[in-house]
TrEMBL record:
This is Glutathione S-transferase kappa 1. It comes from Sagittarius serpentarius (Secretary bird). It holds the Pfam family DSBA. Residues 6-207 form the DSBA-like thioredoxin domain. GO terms for molecular function: glutathione peroxidase activity; glutathione transferase activity. The gene is Gstk1. The active site is at residue 14. GO terms for cellular component: mitochondrion; peroxisome.
């Protein structure tokens, strides 16, 4: 049996994407899967599908505060959420960060996992800005990239190649049926299966015939 290709479409502005990302990183060596990270732009998906940030509905925002705290503990991922976190999110564009991650994916893919994680840590654990170039460079250094390499990637951010790649990846997610993130697509039995959210990974396992061992498999 060949390995199942599992694509994870994510944006670092989404805390649920972080939860799904960490769990799939843990399972990539347990399940018979090829995990492929697909950095995309959540703003583009929202716009194309008419979706709105869940926090814009006050009752849902109230629930999400509790939900993310519980999920962070259960998933053992250091997401820290506070009352003003949603204002912080609504006031930040992740476009620059996602273009930087895309440039990394195109030229230095070995840094994709640690770099994406560092963006989440900075944004969702330390509640610091990730939209300014100097902050993006700080994240890159934290992830182990040299200053020269980080600077080179930052210069690529405004290039048509990087902009188009991010746009194409985002459009691909929409074509699979994504309306939010994380969007996980498993290519199994000759067709793509879309799973939305970080709490559907147990179901993903069941569809591809793999055993679910909880969010933190030992």
């Amino acid at each position: 049996m060949g390995r199942t290709l599992v694509e994870l479409f994510y944006d670092v502005v989404s805390p649920y994407s972080w939860l799904g990302f960490e769990v799939l990183c843990r399972y990539q060596h347990i399940w018979n899967i090829d995990l492929r990270f697909r950095p995309a732009f959540l703003g583009g998906i929202m716009q194309a599908t008419g979706n709105k940030p869940p926090a814009m509905l006050p009752k849902r925002a109230e629930y999400m505060l509790k939900d993310i705290k519980r999920m962070a503990k259960y998933y053992q991922v250091p997401v820290k959420i506070s009352e003003d976190a949603f204002q912080h999110v609504l006031g930040t564009s992740s476009l620059g960060a996602m273009r930087f991650i895309t440039a990394t994916d195109m030229t230095q893919p070995q840094y994709l996992e640690p770099l994406s994680r560092e963006f989440w840590i900075r944004f969702w654990s330390q509640h610091e800005d990730v939209s300014q170039p100097e902050n993006i460079l700080a994240v890159a250094r934290q992830a182990g990239l040299s200053s020269e390499l980080a600077q080179k990637l930052l210069e690529m951010v405004s290039s048509p190649a990087v902009k188009n790649r991010l746009k194409e990846t985002t459009e691909e997610a929409i074509k699979y049926g994504a309306f939010g993130m994380p969007a996980v697509v498993a290519h199994f039995s000759g067709e793509p299966h879309l799973f939305f959210g970080s709490d559907r990974l147990e179901l993903l396992g069941s569809v591809i015939g793999e055993k679910w061992l909880g969010p933190v498999p030992s």
